[in-house]
């Protein structure tokens, strides 16, 4: 039992939804559990608490718009001194930049998940190939 | 020291958090009342930083280093000094680290320290470096002092020898030099020698400055006004003794246990490196050589200048194996002169390979420390670097003179 | 359910997709959590001490920088634990855990060296590529159920 209590996790919930706003997600958490602490950040909501409770509430949030709400676990609890911007003298934590990069891809991933659910067939994508030397030669000659 | 203002040191690093040394960095910073900060950057600049800065490093964290150094130079991040550090043995990081250091040196007045760590790097190893960095940031006015005034003393409690000087009105009026046995006893002895030669009493001394390994202990014992690491003190002492206080200079100090190579601007240390892992690159190597040759250390230099290092095969810089090589050479018929020259060359070559690579050597090159008195050493260094090596008078008293000079800043206060 | 190592090891998208399609992502975050919540170790920020680079010697020689070995002490056991892997081509923006190109080379090599199902692809740049990205990952993860199901049957 004690062990269970010690198993506190933090999950980061990133919404990329037209219908569910981060605040909706937050409200959902507020109404669902007392064991849970949440913190809203630029890129999502951090949910901290006992593993079971966090998983349960996170699932409820994701179900609001499942293809457009994304989740990953987070190593540090929110506001941890060792990683907190304030105590680090300004600079963001290293993981922030990549998270931002990925957050920008989420609308694209969300759309793709919708299509996958609806069994929309995959388009043939033509991946660019390297220019053949012969073709390059033709270009060079034609521009002489 | 901790009643002084907190110094903000920008940490421009790659790998420290994963090498287990980050806690050491934090701990050494707080011991000198400094705070490590991570310069804030505009995230967009990361896209093009490789091309903007000019090095398209494969490692993102190295690109972050470049971006952070840019933020420091452009004043986006308000800091007093910069600590640049990355993993030892990483070639990619070494390139970036060096260029970032040069870039900050060129475009700002901030003191910079660069260091490559292993997992064995401890706060103790970093202390002198961080102390020097914060001193330069904190006490620029003190370092601007060019003349000694009043009656002051400087004591340099080194690992091998303890030196003391008494200075009055910009002149050395007494000096003492003894082997370090017990830190306080040896310092007292050296100090008394100096006092006696100067013909003054301890209570007449207006301010005392201490430096060297034993600086804290003897500083407290003698009630020193200034307790300062060797980088700052020796830079100041070197340009003072060599009378080159304005402009660039490079100071090389070959001590009994470690070496320093310091690039100095207007008497203020900029980039520096410290050795200290290998005895083969220290004065101790020369001491051992002298013993094996059966001569006094003071005679080794005169022998060395008469010898040809090329006549001796040395296959190791190591104080054990290298000296074995020298002994073997003697057995094969090499002259003591050649062996002495080879020993000087070996020490100098190792300093060149391990330390001078990170310091831009600019003339005048001032050689100080006890080893500078062994004539073969400046000769070998000059030959290796193809420049004229300056050994100022009293070069072996460098730390004591620098301390006495800087301590006189407290006389008027 | 299979344990799937993801690369980049801290990816939100990959971690989410693996979980979404019913498997367990092996990602850096959980390992960092283990580190930072270790009681009695005080080596900020991540409680990585000089011991980790030594443990990393299992994956990289002593001549490999300490930062690489320290990271490998965390990533290495994850690779060993994995039953499948997804590698998505280099993202220039991955710092911290993913900030060292040398570690990343070694990580990918060790994942590829394991005889296990592996999917390699690139991060998408537009919607069409995004669709292909998600489809390929989804199909790959579904195929793991089949493979796993078969092997479990075989052992029964």
Give structural notes.
The complex is a heterotrimer of chains A (144), B (413) and C (156). Chain A has 144 residues and is α+β, with helices and mostly antiparallel strands. Chain A has one domain: Alpha-Beta Plaits (2-Layer Sandwich), CATH 3.30.70. Helix content of chain A is 44%, strand content 18%. Chain A has 5 helices and 4 strands. Chain A has helices at residues 2-6, 22-32, 51-64, 95-117, 133-142; strands at 8-15, 37-41, 44-50, 69-74. A 4-stranded antiparallel beta sheet of chain A has the order 2-3-1-4, sandwiched between helices. In chain A, helix 2 crosses helix 3 (51-64). Chain A starts with a helix and ends with a helix. The model of chain A is unreliable at 1-5 (pLDDT under 50). The longest helix of chain B is centred in the C-terminal third of the chain and has 19 residues, at 336-354. Chain B has 413 residues and is of the alpha/beta class. Chain B is built from 15 helices and 14 strands. Chain B has a 5-stranded mixed beta sheet, sandwiched between helices. Chain B has a 5-stranded mixed beta sheet with strand order 12-11-10-13-14. In chain B, strands 2-1-3-4 form a 4-stranded parallel beta sheet, with helices on both faces. Chain B has helices at residues 22-31, 45-53, 60-73, 91-107, 123-138, 140-143, 183-198, 215-222, 230-241, 283-293, 297-306, 321-331, 336-354, 376-385, 398-407, and strands at residues 7-14, 34-37, 81-87, 112-117, 151-157, 161-168, 171-179, 207-211, 226-227, 248-254, 259-265, 268-274, 365-368, 389-390. Chain B is globular and about 65 Å long. The two termini of chain B are 17 Å apart. Chain B folds into 3 domains: 7-138, Rossmann fold; 151-231 and 398-410, ATPase, nucleotide binding domain (Nucleotidyltransferase, domain 5, 2-Layer Sandwich), CATH 3.30.420.40; 248-391, 2-Layer Sandwich (Nucleotidyltransferase, domain 5), CATH 3.30.420.40. In chain B, strand 5 (151-157) and strand 6 (161-168) form a beta hairpin. With 156 residues, chain C is of the alpha/beta class. Chain C has one domain: Rossmann fold (3-Layer(aba) Sandwich). Chain C has 6 helices and 4 strands; from the N terminus they run βαβαααβαβα. In chain C, strands 2-1-3-4 form a 4-stranded parallel beta sheet, with helices on both faces. Chain C is globular. Chain C starts with a strand and ends with a helix. The model of chain C has no long low-confidence stretch (mean pLDDT 89). Chains A and C meet through strand 1, strand 4 and helix 4 of A and helix 1, helix 2 and helix 6 of C.
């Amino acid at each position: 039992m004690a062990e269970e209590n010690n198993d506190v996790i933090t999950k980061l919930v990133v919404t990329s939804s037209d219908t569910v706003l981060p605040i909706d997600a937050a409200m959902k958490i507020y109404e669902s559990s007392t064991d849970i602490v949440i913190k809203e950040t630029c890129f999502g909501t951090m949910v901290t608490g006992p593993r079971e409770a966090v998983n349960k509430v996170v699932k409820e949030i994701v179900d609001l718009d499942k293809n457009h709400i994304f989740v990953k676990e987070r190593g540090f609890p929110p506001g941890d001194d060792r990683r907190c911007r304030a105590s680090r003298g300004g600079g963001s934590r290293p993981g922030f930049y990549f998270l931002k990069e990925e957050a920008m891809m989420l609308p694209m991933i969300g759309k793709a998940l919708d299509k996958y659910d609806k069994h929309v067939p995959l388009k043939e994508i033509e991946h660019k190939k390297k220019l053949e030397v012969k073709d390059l030669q033709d270009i060079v000659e034609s521009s002489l | 020291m901790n009643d002084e203002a907190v110094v903000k040191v920008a940490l421009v690093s790659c790998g420290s958090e994963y090498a287990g040394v980050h806690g050491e960095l934090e701990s050494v910073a707080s011991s000198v009342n400094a705070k490590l900060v991570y310069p804030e950057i505009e995230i967009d600049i990361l896209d093009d930083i490789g091309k903007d800065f000019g090095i398209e490093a494969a490692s993102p964290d190295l690109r972050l280093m470049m971006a952070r150094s840019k933020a420091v130079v452009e004043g986006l991040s308000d800091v007093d000094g910069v600590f640049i550090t990355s993993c030892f043995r990483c070639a990619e990081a070494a390139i970036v680290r060096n260029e970032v250091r040069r870039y900050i040196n060129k475009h700002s007045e901030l003191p910079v320290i660069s260091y490559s760590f292993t997992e064995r790097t401890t706060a103790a190893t970093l202390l002198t470096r961080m102390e020097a960095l914060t001193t330069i940031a904190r006490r620029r006015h003190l370092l601007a002092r060019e003349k000694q005034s009043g009656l002051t003393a400087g004591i340099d409690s080194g690992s091998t020898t303890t030196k003391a000087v008494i200075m009055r009105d910009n002149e050395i009026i007494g000096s003492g030099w003894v082997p370090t046995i017990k830190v306080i006893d040896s310092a007292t002895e050296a100090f008394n020698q100096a006092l006696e030669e100067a013909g003054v009493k301890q209570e007449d001394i207006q301010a005392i400055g201490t430096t060297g390994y034993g600086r804290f202990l003897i500083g407290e014992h003698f009630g020193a006004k200034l307790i300062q690491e060797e980088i700052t003190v020796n830079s100041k002492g070197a340009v003072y003794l060599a009378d080159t206080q304005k402009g660039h200079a490079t100071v090389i100090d070959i001590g009994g246990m470690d070496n320093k190579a310091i690039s100095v601007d207007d008497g203020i240390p900029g980039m520096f490196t410290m050795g200290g892992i290998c005895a083969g690159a220290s004065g101790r190597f020369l001491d051992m050589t002298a013993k094996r040759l059966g001569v006094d250390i003071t005679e080794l230099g005169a022998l060395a200048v008469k010898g040809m290092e090329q006549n001796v095969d040395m296959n190791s810089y190591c104080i054990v194996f290298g000296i074995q090589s020298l002994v073997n050479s003697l057995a094969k018929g090499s002259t003591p002169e050649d062996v002495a020259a080879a020993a000087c060359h070996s020490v100098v070559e190792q300093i060149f390979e391990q330390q001078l690579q990170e310091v831009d050597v600019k003339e005048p090159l001032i050689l100080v420390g006890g080893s500078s008195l062994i004539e073969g050493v400046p000769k070998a260094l000059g030959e290796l670097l193809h420049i004229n090596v300056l050994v100022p008078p009293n070069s072996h008293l460098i730390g004591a003179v620098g301390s006495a000079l800087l301590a006189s800043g407290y006389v008027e206060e | 359910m299979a344990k799937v190592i993801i690369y980049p090891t801290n990816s939100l998208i990959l971690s989410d997709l693996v979980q979404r399609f019913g498997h367990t992502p092996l990602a850096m975050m959980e390992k960092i959590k283990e580190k930072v919540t270790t009681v009695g170790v005080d080596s900020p920020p991540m409680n990585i001490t000089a011991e980790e680079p030594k443990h990393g010697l299992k994956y990289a020689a002593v001549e490999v920088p300490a930062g690489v070995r320290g990271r490998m002490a965390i990533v290495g056991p994850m690779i060993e634990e994995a039953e499948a892997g997804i590698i998505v081509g280099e993202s220039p923006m991955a710092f911290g855990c993913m900030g060292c190109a040398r570690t990343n080379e070694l990580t990918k090599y060790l994942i590829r060296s394991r005889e296990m199902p592996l999917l390699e692809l690139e991060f998408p740049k537009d919607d069409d590529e995004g669709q292909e990205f998600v489809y390929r990952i989804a199909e790959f993860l579904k195929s793991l159920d089949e493979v796993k199901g078969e092997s479990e049957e075989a052992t029964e």
